[in-house]
Every structure is written in C-alpha cells, then in structure tokens.
Amino acid sequence: MNILLFLPYYVRWHYTRALDDMFQNCKHFLVFVFSFFSIGALLQTLFAPWKRLGQTYSGGFDIEDFFGSVIINTLMRVLGFCIRFLVIVLGLISTLIVGILEACIISIWIFMPLLLPILIVLSVIKLLAL
Amino acid sequence: MTYTELKKFLNPYKPVFYLESAIPHSFRSITKRVLLVFLIVSFALSLGYVPTLTQEASIVFFISLFFFTLVFASDAFYYSYYFAQNTSRNLFELAEIVFHTDDTDATKGFVESRIGNTILTRCGVAPSVLSDFLKQRKLFVHTNQLHIENSDDLCNGYVSALLQADQEFRNLLLAHELTDDLVVRTSSWVLDTISYAKRYERWWSEERLQSISPIGRDWAYGVAYDLVRWSRPLRFDPGLAVELHTEEEIDLETLLSRSKDANVLLVGEEGSGKMEILEGLSRKIYHHNVSPTLSDKKILVLDTVSMVAFLQEKGKFEQTIISILQGAHDAGNLILVFPDFPAFVASAEAMQTDLVGIISPYISSPNFNLIAVCDLPGFHQYIERNDALKSRFETIMVRDGNEEQVIKILEQEILSIEQSEGVFIVYPALLEAVQASKKYIVELSLFESAKDLLYDAVAFIKSQNRFVIEPTDILHVIKTKTGIPTGDIDAVEKNKLQNLETHLHERIIGQDEAIVAISNALRRARSGIGNPSRPVGSFLFLGPTGVGKTETTKALAEIFFGEKVKILRIDMSEYNTPDALNRLIGAYDSETPGTLASMVRESPYGVLLLDEFEKTDRKVLDLFLQILDEGFFTDVLGRKVSLRNLIIVATSNAGSETIFEIVNRGESLENKKADIVDTIVTQGIMKPELLNRFDGIIVFHPLTDSQLKEVAKVMLGKLTWRLKEKGMKLVVNDSLLNYLVLKGSDPKFGARPIARAIQDTVEKKIADKIIAGTLKAGSEVEFGPIDLQ
Predict the structure, then answer these.
(1) What is the interface pTM, i.e. ipTM, of the complex?
(2) Residues B193-208, buried b or exposed e (16+ Cβ, 10 A)?
(3) Tell me: the pLDDT tens digits for B382-413?
(4) What is the pTM of this model?
(5) Residues B219, A122: C-beta atoms closer than 8 Å
(6) Interface-testing mutation among A1, A52, A88, A109, with chain B (most B C-beta atoms within 10 A)
(7) Which has the closest alpha carbon to B193: B432, B418, B437, B466?
(8) B298-302 vs B334-338, strand pairing mode
C-alpha cells in the first residue's frame, strides 16, 4: 500500500529534484577528475626537474663536471616534462570520457521509466525463446 | 511548536516514510549488493563462455538489471531527501519517529521507532524493561500534549517534550539514573552518529571526492631517500573531527607557515594529545584546509628510538642526522617530527654529539620545518635549561582538554572501540569514564585516563562474559585501580558511615567536635557531593600534646579505610630546612623524587597525617596553600600529583599556651577558638590564608581526670587483650585506674604519661610475675595501689 502512495511522489521527483542533484553530482565528478590529475600544477612546473633530482655544479673550471651537470640536469628536466605531459594528456582524455559518460547517464535517467518496461519485455522474449 | 505544526513542517518527508515502510534502507543496501553480483555473473555467462547457459544467463541479467534499477532509483530518492538542505538538524530522523507514531500514544511511537529504540538502548535501558513498561503503564500521552521547543535541533526538542509530557516514562528513566539532560545528550550523540554514517556512505559527495589525494602534486618536490629508512608518514583518520586542541593547531599552522625559522617545540603532559595536534594538521592538509604554504606538505615521523639503538657510534650517528636534515631540506615539502625529542637530545648528549651545532644550519632555512615533541619532565630536564637549543624553536604548550572536549572526542572513538573489541558501551558509561577520570586520576591527561578506563572496563566485562559496558563497570575499574570505594554503598559500608562517630569514640575519649567534623567530611565525600577538585577533607588539629590528635587520625584511617590502608605520615618538623620543599616534591639537580610525591603516588587514597605542621619551612606551607585549594601539586619534573582522594590532617601544638590559659580560666574552648587562631596568626606561625583553606580547625581539649581515667581504661584494655592471648587474665579495678591517673597526670603531656605509667608499673609487675612463674596460663591477676608502689 505504502509503495503505491510513494509512486506519484517519485515520478515528480525523478524529473525535478533528481535532475538537479544529478547535474550537481556530474559537475563534482568533472571537477574531481580534472583536479585529480593536477593539470594546473603540472602545467606550472612542466619543465621542472623530475623530483628535484640533479647534480650541483661545484664551481671552478672543471669541464667534465660542468658538462656532467648540464647533461644530468637537462635529462631530469626532459624526464619531468615527458611524465608531466603524459599525465596532462591522460587527465584531459579522462575528463572528456567522464563528461561523455555523464551525458549518457543523464539521458538514461531521463528515459529510465521507459527502460524498465523494455527490460521486462526483453526478459519475457528471452524466456519465450527458450 | 505544537505537534500538529511539527507534523505539517515534516510533511515533505512523508514520501520517504512511505518508501521506508515498504522497503527499508537496510534491506535495499543488501539487495543492491546481491543484485550487483547477479548482474556481473549473468553478464559474464551471457557472453557465451558456457554455451548451454547463455540464454538463461541473459534472462537473469535483464531481470537483475530491472530490479537493480528499481533499487538504485529508490536509494537515489532516499539520499536526495536525506541530504536536502534543512534549517534544523536531524529532521529526517525526527520524521521517522513522528510518522511512526499513533496520535493516541506518543511514548509508544517513540519507544518502538528505530531511532527511539536506538537512543534508549544507548542510554542503557534494556528492551525487556521497555516492553514491560509499555504493557504495564497506566497513562497514555496524546501527541497534542507535546509542546516542542523551536530550536536548531527539533529532534532533541521532541525528546525533551515527550519527557515533560509523560511523567511515568520519565520516572522509569530516572529509576535508571537517566536525567532529562542525559537522555537528550544521548539522543544528540546517537543522531550525530547516524548522520556521520550516512555522510560516510555518500562517497560521491563533493567533500569526499575532494579528499582523494591527487597525483603529480609532489613531483616538483624532491625525495629524501635517507629519510625513508628512519621515518614513516604520520598515520591519521581523515574522517575524525576532533576539536580538542583548536588553538594549538592554529598556532602550529601559523608558525609552520613562516617563511623561515618555522620550527616548533610541542610541549605537554604525557597523553595530553601532542601527536593528535599533528594528526589534526594532517587532516587539514588532507582536506586542503590550510594556508597555501602548507598545502603540499607531508608530515614524516622519525623513528629516533631505532636510529639511536642502531647507530651507536658517534660518527655514524652524526652523519645520519646530517643526511636526514639535508634530505628534508632538499625535498622542500616535508615537516619532520621528532616524537620524543628530550630522549633524542639525551642520547645525543650521551654520544657527546653537538646537536645544536648540527641542527643550526638547517633550522633557519626556508622550506624546512621541524617539530620537536616533548613531554613535560623531558622538557624541563633536557630542553629548558639548554638555551642554545630552545632558542631555535617556538614553543607551543599543549593544554589538557576540558571535560566537554574530551567527551566530544570519546563520542567519536566509542564506535571504533566497540567494533575492535566486540562490546557495546552505553552512553552514561562514557560520561562516567570522563567524570571518574577527572575525580580520581589526575596524573594522566583527562582524555588518556578516560580512554584507559574504557579499555580497562572492556577487559573487565570480557572476563565476566558480558558485552555491555555500564557505568558501574567503570566505577568497578576505578575501585580496582585505586582502591577508592566508588559506586553503590553496600550494607556494611552504610552501617560504618552512619555510626562513624560511635566507632571513633570506642578509641577516642572526648574530642566530640573533632569526631563529628571528620565524620561529616567522610560522609560528604562518599556520597559524591563533595567538591571533586579538593581533598576529601582537610583539618588542622590544634591542641597540647597527648590529647588524641594523632590517635584520632589513626582511628579514622583504620575504621573507615580499613587495616590495609596505611596512614601517610610525615613528621613536618624534619622539613624545616631551606631544602625542605625539594625533599618533599623532588630535587631538580639530583633528579630524586620527593617524599610527598612518592608517598602519594603509591597510596593515593587514605589519610595524610602531617605531624607538627607549624614547624615546617615557609615554602612548604605555601605548597600546602595550593594543595588544600586545588587538591594537587606539580612535582619538580612537572608531573601532577593528586591529593584529591586523601583526608589531610595537620596536627600542631601551636596555641597550646592559650588553650591552657582558656581552660584554666574555666572558659569554653568553642567560644574562644577565634582567640587561639588569632594567637597563631599574630605570632606569625601560620598565615591566615592557609588557615582559611582548611575545611575545619579543630581545637582539642586538654584531658580532664575523668577522661584520663577512660584513656587508662582503654590502654589497659589493650594489655588485657594481649594477656588473654597468652591465657592470662588482668582484672581492671577502679583503684588501679585512679592510681594510674594520679601517677600519670601531667596536663602538659596529656595522655602520654598514662601510657608510661602503665608500662612502668602494671606491665613491669606482670613481666616479673611471668618470669618468676607466679603468673601462668589460666591464672588471674589484679593490682591495687599498694601492689604497684
């Protein structure tokens, strides 16, 4: 009995407050994915050495030490750039995928009342086909 | 607000009530998980891995998907209503109670609702008691009798209104020692717990998503490889919301945010929550709730104990410290924590390492944060006197949390204790743990001691094969730990307390005023109405020697506290030199504990007798100003020593001359007590503020001849008992007593000469007779004055 009393409230909620909530949640997920990959922070430090690794040049005239430092420090910066760039690209792709998925979920949500009878029909068809 | 208005106000929640009545949330949660398993398995099978089951699996998949979608949508509806923005707290739970209630019986509706039942169980009322009550009660409260106070927590307002309206229900709760405040408090905690659990379920909330650590933020910082070996990240629970040391956390954050010289000494008593402050900072960093300077910082705790144990050579030790500090400096995003800094300093001193010299170059540089955690004794002993070291840090003194703060934290911890130990702690037991800790255990911080009590109670009830911890279990633990009688007063103790004066008079002749005062103090303390922040009782016994001051104290200790409790007795005349204070509370230089501190720590409950109190040093008298006022003192290492469970009796001969003069003039000592006290103050023996701090100043009368005769009778009674054990009998007659009073009467020395007279005459004669063989087992002896001359 109570479930019948509940149904009209549900239908109204499904197309009003539920959609509001859904848009809010989708926004939170998009922001989360974008910030999870630290895209802003990685862009700011794109060319910084990887984890501050490097060699300090002790000064004076020592060609071997000088070029050694230059090569190692350049390599660390290149390594840092590569990893950061990869993560930035991965982050952007993930954000895009999540955005597309969210659009799909919202569409499914809108058509969910139609989807349920379809699932029943599909089950019955499969059952009859046995 | 009337009940009708409340119901109207809660009307938007009615659809959820319909849903919950049809399919409860708990049932949906389980169903959702089961359906998810069906979905995955049937989907996998429908892909054709098992050809014979493909068709059936497809059918199961579609049916499971149908039901899963239904349950998912219902849950979405539920959460949408639960987390809707409200003007008042816990409206959802209140709606659950209200829509569950039949208008003709508000109490039944509350008791049988899920929330009401949980609240009452947490209060410690058994379900059987509640069902019996519902069957046997005579009055039924209609909902229109409820008048709910408008507040930001209508649910608690509803509970209060119900208790106000239903006196019979209220009486039932009062019989379980549950006052209105306690029930509302429990209700508030239960509702907060439910709300927290619901928030925790909501993993998709903005707050939860933001708390997930992003990747790549620390790639611009370095890795201190040497630190990996000797440190570990600080562990903390991100979900807790502890508000014990808010000020200290703010101070710490401010100091660490400085561009340089950002190093802190965190000093506090053992268990005062120093590491919890660091956990609080970690939580803030985790939730991105700190200043930008600290937003990417990581807190690393050094394992100094292992480090010191492993690196026993000075060279290696110094090299490792430098390497660690350099690593932390280069990393740029680390906050380094020395968990027991005084012990580390002591180890460095033992290895003759110049710690200040090693630390100095790093400590003032930017992007370097060091937190040194110190307990009070260690701080006083190793840091405070080392100016060069101390000046490199900013000091934050950590204060112990107050009762309310500690309750709030334990409220959050209680569920995890229950889960890990498999017990159920009723809310009043939690309050009892905090209140009992405050009253009986001063040495540790309130939070630590209350938590220890709860864990001890867990061990106790497990040994009893029970799983519910009640307030009585907490009191039992206190009794076991300290020997202090707590909880209900049993028949034997009741009899002892009610007839304390009679029992004391069996040993003390006269001195009615002293006996009444001290008996009243004991009854006050045992009934629990005494001031918990002061000693049980404090008395100054004034009077000439030998009038029963010390004997009264001894009798009191033996009669009330039992034979096992020893009297802590200090002859204060021995503490009259300038170093007296150090000898009592401990000496800093020689690192020796004080007599008073050690004695009280060993026996925190009983009687402290301070003989010849007036003869001690001034500084010691000043120490007792604090003790009598606050019930504790701090020893030389900064540890608190509690005297709150002791009766303090100070005896003094000061004013004896005045007492004799008053008695000789035939005046009443009661009426002239002020004159005696004035004499003591005028002569500069004790300050008026010290005298005022005693609960009572009791003047002992010089003994009259008849009282001396009674004393002689009591003393001979003891001798008679000793002879009886040897099978001999001493007949005490009136002429013997008169003779002893005549021989042993000296007003200046009170009853003492009587004891000497008995020894020199009666005991001597008996000894002679036993040696001569004229007094044997089974024989009887009687003396007259002529026999004893």
Answers:
(1) 0.86
(2) bbbeebeeeeeebeeb
(3) 888 788 888 888 999 988 778 888 898 888 88
(4) 0.73
(5) no
(6) A52
(7) B418
(8) parallel
